[in-house]
Amino acid sequence: MAWSGLSVQVGGMSSHPVLLAGTWRPSQSTGSFHAENPATGQPLPGDYPISSWADCDTALTAATAAAALLRAAPPETIARFLTRYAERIEARKTELVEMAHAESGLPKAPRLGDVELPRTTNQLRQAAAAVLEGSWAMPTIDTKLNLRSVLAPIGPVWVFGPNNFPFAFNGIAGGDFVAAIATGNPVIAKSNTSHPGTSRLLAEEAIAAVGEAGLPPATVQLLYRTSHADGERLVADPRTGAIGYTGSRSAGLKLKAAADAAGKPFYAELSSVNPVIILPGALAERGAKLAEEFSASALMASGQFCTSPSLILLVAGDATEQFIATVKTRLEAAPVAPLLSSAVARALAASVQTLQTHGAQVVTGGQLLPAPGCRYANTTLRVTGDGFLAAPEKLQTEAFGNASLLVVVRDIAQIATILGHLEGNLTGALYTDTQGSDDQHYAVLEPLLRSRVGRLLNDKMPTGVAVSPAMNHGGPYPSTSHPGFTAVGIPAALRRFAALQCYDNVRAARLPAGLQDKNPNGKMWRLIDGQWSQGNVGG
Amino acid sequence: MAWSGLSVQVGGMSSHPVLLAGTWRPSQSTGSFHAENPATGQPLPGDYPISSWADCDTALTAATAAAALLRAAPPETIARFLTRYAERIEARKTELVEMAHAESGLPKAPRLGDVELPRTTNQLRQAAAAVLEGSWAMPTIDTKLNLRSVLAPIGPVWVFGPNNFPFAFNGIAGGDFVAAIATGNPVIAKSNTSHPGTSRLLAEEAIAAVGEAGLPPATVQLLYRTSHADGERLVADPRTGAIGYTGSRSAGLKLKAAADAAGKPFYAELSSVNPVIILPGALAERGAKLAEEFSASALMASGQFCTSPSLILLVAGDATEQFIATVKTRLEAAPVAPLLSSAVARALAASVQTLQTHGAQVVTGGQLLPAPGCRYANTTLRVTGDGFLAAPEKLQTEAFGNASLLVVVRDIAQIATILGHLEGNLTGALYTDTQGSDDQHYAVLEPLLRSRVGRLLNDKMPTGVAVSPAMNHGGPYPSTSHPGFTAVGIPAALRRFAALQCYDNVRAARLPAGLQDKNPNGKMWRLIDGQWSQGNVGG
Questions:
Q1: Cβ–Cβ gap B504/A151 under 8 Å
Q2: Contact across the interface for A502 and B71, Cβ inside 8 Å
Q3: Is B114 left (phi over 0), alpha (psi -120 to 50) or beta?
Q4: Which of A47, B297, B399, B494 is the most buried (most CB within 10 A)?
Q5: pLDDT digits (tens, 9 = 90+) for A216-266
């Protein structure tokens, strides 16, 4: 999930403009770049600017002014923006899907048009509903002491979107964008450099919706790329409120260090190998079905999901060999879809090489495929439990793409040992049989896995990430930067971009609407003297 | 609020033992130190060890094992510990108050015995109630998708307590300790070096209560001091779950940097000057009363509260001169209480010197007082708004203790300008008249102040910090490390020490009690399909 870039042309005079302070204007650029079509390997038309610090500075100043105005914006206005934006995305669906397909190589249908775009507009509409209800802000009232607290906007939010969801996690339309806007913050989006055109089309609709809703023009701004130095500078700028980042661990940790040093909350989703433990009873009971289920999940979007199952633990034996043989057959029979970019293909090749260097053996695949396009053979590797434990850190290298590692362990105890070496992950799955023969192993392994993953699954692959209040798309470091938050799911994802604000003895008329005695809409849940209520203070 | 130490004796053989893995045992120490009586300036009996890394390592290993056991502990057991601990503190009140008085110089009554100790036991009991109810964990259930999430223990928590509340914020008994335990985490407390004896007595009661409740012995552990290098190492250790720190900004930021680099949540309360704006109408209406109110608040505990009002903004004019004259008279008439330690007195003198160097003039006070004891004259300084704006950063130096800075501004517009330079603070107060003449100024200034403080007050000094669900004892950086959290107030303070854990398709019997269909106690608030409920899933 790299946000670093593609090929660069210095001094491109005809670059696309950037969206700053409400208008599309020429970038104060230091160069330009273009996207590529990963299905063909060919460059796509359109030069996009690499912004200098001057663009970042303009964006931050405009966002600061917008933040002050947004604080006074009624919820209806913000909700109207989110709704109109969703409608506009739907109205421009054909063009958006074409562009995202060209830039990402992802199928137009069902993936982009029937799944990801509707998910994106669904997120916008869920957020609009959350803004109107207002419960996300957890208004908390102590009537005896006249103390009242509420979550409030944190300030301008930078959103760095990943390469793997050109709509649903796009910095100008996706989950972090929606969460930051819904909490009343202006967003400065940093497009992923692999899909600048998709980001541009989305931003056109976003700024139009801003105008229709009557929000401050600088509520949404878009840059395409900056230098790494400017990236570290902008996250640490005093005007920055917080940062949402989804992308590679290496780039993310550099930005995080800069943000941390300046005391700026940096919400990052970095990497995850998403361990899946298939216990012996489950394998005996339904091994062929599980091989099919795993193969399908591992190849979804060519394995380019944050939650792709990439580390499978199985106990040595005939059933496991049969499982591996079936997986091999299925991977070899499946078509090889293009990866998101040549950079992703190169990184995948390097990661697989790292796994091999540290003892993993290729079962199938293991090489880049010839042109056209950025493709890597569907790949799985294997290593023994002993082999894994000889280099546990290296063998947890994220091979982002259609590759996975099967760890064939000696026994259940060795799984427990391996879990003790497991890094923080977004997800972890346990498969058990239906007759109870795996239950004692589950009881031993679950606590070890539980503490190292954000979402624990039973008998299910981790690739589906529903937009639900109960979702956790997060996990212990280094899968994310903080284990208490999720990037998906409303209201929890919104609370990342909020500051807690208390009003002590503040006169009634001066309180924000959500903290006044009267419930502003009769639907807002508030914690009044320790009890959740949709009523007014005093009955 | 320094946690750095006092005088040191290397190789003290008769040092007090440390509390590790359930037993009091000799420290693997690199030296020792002793406390001083700040009222006399004399050393107090008792050598306390400076732990080597070996002690830290032992503590971390024991805490890791305890964390796994605590995860399975029923809420009743944790609540029983908290309650028994409160009862034991009350039973040993006389000795605790004597010791804390000797080590801190704070009055035995009302402060230590009648206010702080009851506040401490009240926090323990509030936490016990929160544990039994379970609502703090925000169980969230999506019945359609069978997705269920809950906040769960984050892992072993280090608590670094400050010097200014030997009971209520003590690392082994105070707010952070209570929050970390209530969320199911073991605590390793780092005593403040100014009150090791108080920490020792508290720890004796804590470990006895652990035994009575049947919690794992390593649920509570106590070290007195480490090297700075070991401090940075222990916060970053892989076994560490999170850190609660209250203390000086300089020491805190070093620890924060180490924790950040390792991805460990570091909840720090660092420093705050707590701006108070007294608008002209209020001053005209009740200037003498406000001068009295401010003087009393500024001298409370010799100004050694995190929320002491230390930066007062007033518009130039006769009423302001009268206010200053009254404050001067009151400060000079008030007795001078000892500061918490000679280190605090020295730091205060240095901070006042910094303010003077950058243009502030002493109105009264401004010098250390002669023996006996660590005392500094009740002090206030003044500077013009222009003077403040010439060195806004330096003139926000926290002068921890009985000193404050009055900024006499030209007009309301200059207050607005100054607020633009304001660092993040825990609190900010606005005083206005009752007739509405200040209302237009309030409307201009409130948004500027609001965004820079955690708790906004009207017509009230900030020194009282009630333990209420609606309290925010937190604020924007650098007053704390994250603006979304509070260190005081249940349930919010608990959520700092939790990880979000989602269960996806997990079989019913394997779910934690709070996520099963049946509400475990009929009182737990859960967010079920978007609605808060104390009922069961399905009615």
A1: no
A2: no
A3: alpha
A4: B399
A5: 999 999 999 999 999 999 999 999 999 999 999 999 999 999 999 999 999
**What DSSP element (H or E) covers A8?**
strand A8-9
State mean pLDDT over A144-160: 98
Q: Tell me the residues of chain B between 261 and 300 that have a Cβ less than 8 Å away from chain A.
A: 261-265
Kindly state the DSSP code that residue B301 receives in the 8-state scheme: G
Q: Does B446 touch chain A (CB under 8 A)?
A: yes
- Could you give the domains of chain B? 58-137+154-270+480-497 (3.40.605.10), 275-458 (3.40.309.10)
The DSSP letter of residue A315 is E
Number of CB pairs < 8 Å for A and B?
A: 196
Report the chain B residue with the minimal C-alpha distance to residue A146: B470
B503/chain A closest Cα distance in angstroms: 5
Phi/psi class of residue B25: alpha, beta or left (left: φ > 0; alpha: ψ in -120 to 50)? Answer: beta
pLDDT, one tens digit per residue, over B320-358 is: 999 999 999 999 999 999 999 999 999 999 999 999 999
Confirm if A348 and A399 have CB atoms less than 8 A apart: yes
Contact residues on chain B for A505, CB-CB shorter than 8 A: 457-460
Decide: B313 and B348 in contact? Cβ < 8 Å. no
Contact status, residue A213 vs residue A80, Cβ threshold 8 Å: yes
Is the minimum CB–CB distance between B65 and chain A shorter than 8 Å? no
pLDDT tens digits along A194-206: 999 999 999 999 9
Query: Average model confidence (pLDDT) for chain B?
Result: 96
Is A306 assigned a catalytic role? yes
Contact B510 A458 (CB under 8 A): yes
A252 shares contact with chain B (CB less than 8 Å): no
Nearest to A476 among B68, B474, B499 (CB): B499
Which residue of chain B has the CA closest to A454?
B501
Beta bridge partners of B226: B51
Backbone angles phi, psi at A220, to 5 degrees: -125, 130
A204 in contact with chain B, both atoms CB, cutoff 8 A: no
Instruction: Report the percent of chain B where pLDDT is more than 90.
Output: 96
Q: Answer whether residue B512 shows pLDDT above 60.
A: yes
Residue linked to tokens 């130096």: B397
Q: How far apart are CA B122 and CA A115, in angstroms?
A: 52
AA letter at A470? A
Q: Of the candidates A256, A312, A254, A255, which has an alpha carbon nearest to the alpha carbon of residue A287?
A: A312
As for the ipTM of the complex, it is 0.96
The angle subtended at Cα A448 by Cα A445 and Cα A452, nearest 5°, is: 135
**Residue B534: closest C-alpha in chain A:** A532
CB-nearest to A141 from B72, B470, B506 is: B470
Q: Which band of pLDDT confidence, cut at 50, 70 and 90, is reported for residue B86?
A: very high
Q: Residue type at A424?
A: G
What distances in angstroms separate CA A142 from CA A125, A150, A522, B101, B472, one per listed residue?
A: 32, 12, 19, 33, 12
Alpha-carbon distance values, B434 to A470, B277, B291, B438, B458 (Å):
47, 15, 17, 8, 11
Task: Write out residues 468-497 of B within 8 Å (CB-CB) of A.
Answer: 468-472, 474, 476-478, 481-486, 489, 492, 495-496
- Which residues are CB-neighbours of B416 under 8 A, at least 6 positions away? B444, B445, B448
pLDDT in tens, B157-172: 999 999 999 999 999 9
Instruction: Kindly tell me if the per-residue pLDDT of A133 is higher than 90.
Output: yes
- Which of B462, B484, B498 minimises the CB distance to A495? B484
If contacts are CB pairs under 8 Å, which of residues 138-177 in chain A contact chain B?
140-142, 145, 147-149, 151-152, 154-155
**A36, A293, A306, A398: which is the annotated catalytic residue?**
A306
Is the pLDDT score of A103 beyond 80?
Answer: yes
**Mean pLDDT of all residues belonging to chain A:** 96
B427 residue type, one letter: T
Contact A481 B506 (CB under 8 A): no
Record the tokens describing residue A86, joined without a space.
């969703």
